Amino acid sequence: MAAGRTTTVKIKLTVTALLATIAAGQARAAMLTDAEAMFLDQLATAAAVLEQRCAGYEADGAGGVHLGARLLGSPNAAMAMVGAFDATIKAHDGNDYDPQKFRPEVSEAAGKTFKRVRAELISDPDRA
User: Whose CA is closest to 39, among 61, 63, 66, 71?
Assistant: First the structure.
């Protein structure tokens, strides 16, 4: 009977160690670079201002892609971030989105920026 417990404990420890290793790897992979964070901050800020102050308007994105290309090094990198941001918005709104473009770290950072900007715009309506 003791041997059965030992095997169970060894399996549980192995599974726990494996899950901890995977989670640690995902946490490292889930960090935004400084350039990504800066570009995402710009995207989320623009979205918050548009939502709060410019009902009926949408950004065409051309200027955003140029900025993203300068910050991230290429138009493809900028478009990947725009795609991740788009997937975040769609997921938040309960709409269909491309799960391959969704990045949890983008969702978290964009949500924080959006809430901060929205709160600032509410507290100071003339700021926009």
Answer: 71
Residue with tokens 């140029």: 66
**Tokens standing for 7?**
């095997």
- Are residues 121 and 46 in contact, defined by beta-carbon separation less than 8 angstroms? no
Widest pairwise Cα distance in the chain: 73
Can you give the pLDDT of all 128 residues of the chain as single tens digits? Answer: 555 555 544 454 444 444 444 444 444 457 999 999 999 999 999 888 888 877 777 666 677 788 889 999 999 999 999 999 999 999 999 999 999 999 999 999 999 999 999 999 889 877 65
Distance in angstroms (rounded) separating the CA atoms of residues 1 and 10: 15
